[in-house]
Amino acid sequence: MTSLPSRRTLEALGMMMIGDGVLALIEPRRHAALWRMGPAPMRRSVAWFERRPALTAGLGAAEIVIGIWLATRQSKAAGRLPSR
């Protein structure tokens, strides 16, 4: 069984993935453009996603599904919520 701190960390990761996926789904170009920084290879890859908003939105939808799966697995791994 995974420890409670590990489950909390994985659930927090799932929540962040859900939020990031929603932003990519509703505003794919703007969301991708936020990451246009850093070294040239990173800027080129971000530009690639900016030019493909449907793909970016689709990946955002997939990220939402994976984030929900990851977060909900943590409660199933616990068997029940911790008592107070």
Care to describe what's here?
This protein has 84 residues and is mainly α. The protein has one domain (4-78). Helix content is 79%, strand content 0%. The protein has 4 helices and no strands. α1 runs antiparallel to α4 (53-78). It starts with a helix and ends in a 6-residue tail after the last helix. The mean pLDDT is 89.
Topology:
Blueprint: H1 4-26, H2 28-33, H3 40-50, H4 53-78
Helix pairs in contact: 1-4
How is this structure best summarized?
By secondary structure, the protein is an all-alpha fold.
pLDDT average, as an integer? 89
* Structural class by sheet pairing and helices: mainly alpha
Task: Please mark out the parts with pLDDT under 50 across 5 or more consecutive residues, or reply none.
Answer: none
How many β-strand runs? Answer: 0
SSE order = HHHH
Percent strand: under 5%
What is the first-to-last residue Cα distance?
A: 20 Å
Q: What does the overall shape look like?
A: elongated
Report the sheet with the most strands, covering strand number, pairing sense and barrel closure: none
